[in-house]
Amino acid sequence: MEEKTIAVLTSGGDAPGMNAAIRAVVRAGIFKGFRVLGVRRGYNGLIKGDLVEMNLRSVSGIIHRGGTVLYTARSPEFNTEAGMQKAIQVCRAHNILGVVVIGGDGSFRGARDLSERGYNCVGIPGTIDNDIACSDYTIGFDTAMNTAMEAVDRLRDTSQSHDRCSVVEVMGRRAGWLALRCGIAVGATSILVPEAPFDLQKDVIDRMVENQRAGKQHFVVVVAEGVGNVSEIAKEIQTRTGIESRATVLGHIQRGGSPTVTDRVVASQMGYHAVELLSKGIGNRVVAMKADKVVDYNISEALQMKKPFDFNLYQIAHDISI
Ligand SMILES: Nc1ncnc2c1ncn2[C@@H]1O[C@H](COP(=O)(O)OP(=O)(O)OP(=O)(O)O)[C@@H](O)[C@H]1O
Ligand SMILES: O=P(O)(O)OC[C@H]1O[C@](O)(CO)[C@@H](O)[C@@H]1O
Ligand SMILES: [Mg+2]
Q1: How far, in Å, from the CA of 129 to the mean position of ligand 2?
Q2: In the chain, pLDDT over 70 holds for what percent of residues?
Q3: Residues 6 or more apart from 280 whose CB is under 8 A from it?
Q4: Mutate to test the pocket of ligand 2, among 14, 173, 225 (most ligand atoms within 8 A of CB)
Q5: pLDDT in tens, 171-207
Q6: For 72, which of 16, 145, 213, 312 is 20 to 30 Å away at the CA?
Q7: Ligand 1: which of 47, 107, 135, 143 to mutate, judged by most atoms within 8 Å of the beta carbon?
Q8: CATH class of residue range 143-255
């Protein structure tokens, strides 16, 4: 009798906690009697057949490590019918009946397409952006927030010593979740996110001047990547307020590092749940966290959902930062 085989891959930007998810998938898979294959470098590995046999020990000592031991990639080829067909041939050749895809929304589109062609896929939200609409939480978000917060705490030390304004860019091309929470945690004077329109004069400059009159001498402005160029924003702030302003881009530092407890635990729960679905012959699902419960959704439905930005928290940040 042929062995039942499942595969696991990581795709899109890496996120701390992806390794914990891989570990859970491999261990749960073996526990449920599957042969488990690791696919290297996302969908590129599925196209090329870059597969590695996973056993209980191949995921030892990785739960605390950032990045992904399976490597990750963005694969334009998988987005084409020819690329998809190559991947299907590889799945067929290795008798793969299901694939766990750990990644973001783009990766889930690939998982949906593969499911529609007969290969059960289950997505696990792994991205520091927390921008998966169907899930309250995405693996990597907590670690990234803490990394960004610690970095801005350090910036604050120097901006305080020099009576400066620190304009800090945190990651998030289309999502301001990281900026919002990090901004509150560091007591930023202003937080700029792509979801909320802003007026530089009213929402940043006037607030700084008002705060300065009340005795504040240093400032932190947190800006999400998608909002615009932080060097230009810093220059504009300096010109209009006369307060010396410096820009810092935190960049990929936010994607690395050892995952927090939250990321390790959520990754373990989601990995286990994904394997449970596959073991019941269920695919075309995204695992999600809703009100502290692990649930799952149809991928197409999940991709159509909208995640309303937390304007209430945004307002709180605004009101308590004067
Ligand atoms: N519409 C699609 N159809 C098939 N595959 C897709 C599609 N969109 C994306 N993919 C595949 O998923 C990969 C990852 O997508 P993307 O680069 O958008 O990252 P992501 O998973 O959204 O993660 P993040 O945005 O957090 O970095 C793409 O390189 C591609 O291989
Ligand atoms: O590392 P790359 O490919 O430049 O992608 C950067 C993007 O990926 C993310 O880190 C999400 O994975 C976004 O916050 C950021 O905009
Ligand atoms: Mg994405």
Answers
A1: 8
A2: 99
A3: none
A4: 173
A5: 999 999 999 999 999 999 999 999 999 999 999 999 9
A6: 145
A7: 107
A8: alpha beta
**CB atoms closer than 10 angstroms to residue 232:** 11
Question: Considering the entire predicted model, what is its pTM?
Answer: 0.96
Atom of ligand 1 nearest to the CA of 104: 21
Does 217 belong to an annotated binding site?
yes
Q: How far apart are CA 166 and CA 117, in angstroms?
A: 50
* Burial category of 53 from C-beta neighbours within 10 Å (exposed 0-12, middle 13-18, buried 19 and up): exposed
Average pLDDT of span 22-47: 98
Q: How far is the CA of 159 from the centre of ligand 2 (A)?
A: 27
27 is in an annotated binding site: yes
Task: Give dist(CA 271, CA 133) in Å, integer.
Answer: 19
Tell the residue nearest (CA) to atom 3 of ligand 2: 13
Predicted complex ipTM: 0.98
By the 10 Å C-beta count (0-12 exposed, 13-18 middle, 19+ buried), 250 is classed as buried
* Tokens coding 298: 């149809």
**What are the DSSP E strand ranges found in 11-115?**
35-39, 51-54, 96-103
User: Ligand 2 atom 2: the closest Cα is on which residue?
Assistant: 13
